Amino acid sequence: MNNLKQLKFWNFGGIYYFYFMIWALIFAFLPFWLNKTAHLDTSVSGLVFSAMAITALILEPLYGIIQDKLGLKKYLFGFVVLCLLFIGPFVQFAFIPLLEINAIFGAIVGGAYLSLCLNGGVGVVEAYMERSTRASNYEYGHVRLFGSLAGGTAAFIGGIMFVRNPYSIFWACTVSAVILGVLLWTLRVKKEEKEAVHSPEVTEEETPVTKENILNVFKNRSFWGFCIMMIGIATMFDVFDQQFPNYFASFFSDASRGELVFSRIASVQVFLEAGFMVLAPWFINKIGAKNGLILAGIVLFVRVIGSAFLTEIWMLATWRLLAAIEMPLMLVSIMKYITSVFDVRLSATVYMLGFNFAKQVGISIFSFVMGYLYNLIGFQSGYVVLSIIILVFVIAGAMIMRSEKFYNDSNRKLAAA
């Protein structure tokens, strides 16, 4: 039995590893590819990311409700894997021709397709895996660290691959999708394991989700505070990282050298992130999920403002490594806050809407805005503006959100009554 449990742990880990291998390869090197291979300026590149975000806005509400109704069934996850399989052929044979026909049209189509796999698809992956690991009595953060390991691997090998052949990145994603599909197909969560997760804190998890249950989420002030916090942290994390590789590479006389060095730094960062991911569940349990989110926002603010003023290469590299602390704090706090504050039957819906949907709303706006600002006032001044935006959203979200302790105390009083 223990051997089967260990095997399932590695199965979960493998799914996270190969999905986030694809994620890391694309998000680390897509900015380089759009600039160097597709020859797009920062404003059109920003439009690609905005298209990804807008497509996710359409998908997230549907994905959340569908996944909550499916529970532990894998159909929606399987659809995401199917889209991932065609990334290589799409970029090689369709993306560039579309951009040549019309840059704006090509950017929108390319961004929309990538969103099926990434901005929209990641919500399906995270929601399904959180529910499956919770049903199998695993700590989410311990399994999620495989995603960080994948990011480190992708950054290390991706730099070499990209310099030799920019298209190889996307074909590596297709190969990873094949392995991901096999791992998902072999994953099994037994009925008794689903029942074992039931506890006083997780009552009636198998009761059908109703329209009233979903509407109650929107009546909760913490949901709206959580959305604002996600724009301040998750949105700005992605917006900052979208074109930072080009900013970093600009400090090198040889851009290819800058791309390779950046890939090495990103690799170190993500392996450090994996180490912090092991400790994050314990740490968040100590300080609380809301406080963990606030701390993640502070780290992001420091990272962005530092990048505006620390213009030596070694300083930028060191400051980049702060993301290794920020990401585990954010991811673990998000999942713990959702399952502590909201009805766990709606964990996918809350995750899709409160995290992914809110994040994509922000990305669809700020990707284009920041791309325009980088052109207008430069990266350094743009980063000062971005850091102020982060601070405003994090403070506003923290003021509106209630801590999970508030809900635990309220539940105890109701039980006592």
Automatic annotation (TrEMBL):
<dbReference type="InterPro" id="IPR000576">
    <property type="entry name" value="LacY/RafB_perm_fam"/>
</dbReference>
<dbReference type="InterPro" id="IPR036259">
    <property type="entry name" value="MFS_trans_sf"/>
</dbReference>
<feature type="transmembrane region" description="Helical">
    <location>
        <begin position="260"/>
        <end position="280"/>
    </location>
</feature>
<feature type="transmembrane region" description="Helical">
    <location>
        <begin position="46"/>
        <end position="63"/>
    </location>
</feature>
<feature type="domain" description="Major facilitator superfamily (MFS) profile">
    <location>
        <begin position="1"/>
        <end position="405"/>
    </location>
</feature>
<dbReference type="GO" id="GO:0005886">
    <property type="term" value="C:plasma membrane"/>
</dbReference>
<protein>
    <submittedName>
        <fullName>MFS transporter, OHS family, lactose permease</fullName>
    </submittedName>
</protein>
<feature type="transmembrane region" description="Helical">
    <location>
        <begin position="12"/>
        <end position="34"/>
    </location>
</feature>
<dbReference type="Pfam" id="PF01306">
    <property type="entry name" value="LacY_symp"/>
</dbReference>
<keyword id="KW-0472">Membrane</keyword>
<feature type="transmembrane region" description="Helical">
    <location>
        <begin position="101"/>
        <end position="125"/>
    </location>
</feature>
<keyword id="KW-0813">Transport</keyword>
<keyword id="KW-0812">Transmembrane</keyword>
<feature type="transmembrane region" description="Helical">
    <location>
        <begin position="380"/>
        <end position="401"/>
    </location>
</feature>
<feature type="transmembrane region" description="Helical">
    <location>
        <begin position="169"/>
        <end position="187"/>
    </location>
</feature>
<feature type="transmembrane region" description="Helical">
    <location>
        <begin position="145"/>
        <end position="163"/>
    </location>
</feature>
<feature type="transmembrane region" description="Helical">
    <location>
        <begin position="317"/>
        <end position="338"/>
    </location>
</feature>
<keyword id="KW-0997">Cell inner membrane</keyword>
<feature type="transmembrane region" description="Helical">
    <location>
        <begin position="292"/>
        <end position="311"/>
    </location>
</feature>
<feature type="transmembrane region" description="Helical">
    <location>
        <begin position="223"/>
        <end position="240"/>
    </location>
</feature>
<keyword id="KW-1003">Cell membrane</keyword>
<keyword id="KW-1133">Transmembrane helix</keyword>
<dbReference type="GO" id="GO:0015528">
    <property type="term" value="F:lactose:proton symporter activity"/>
</dbReference>
<dbReference type="GO" id="GO:0030395">
    <property type="term" value="F:lactose binding"/>
</dbReference>
<feature type="transmembrane region" description="Helical">
    <location>
        <begin position="75"/>
        <end position="95"/>
    </location>
</feature>
<feature type="transmembrane region" description="Helical">
    <location>
        <begin position="350"/>
        <end position="374"/>
    </location>
</feature>
<dbReference type="InterPro" id="IPR020846">
    <property type="entry name" value="MFS_dom"/>
</dbReference>
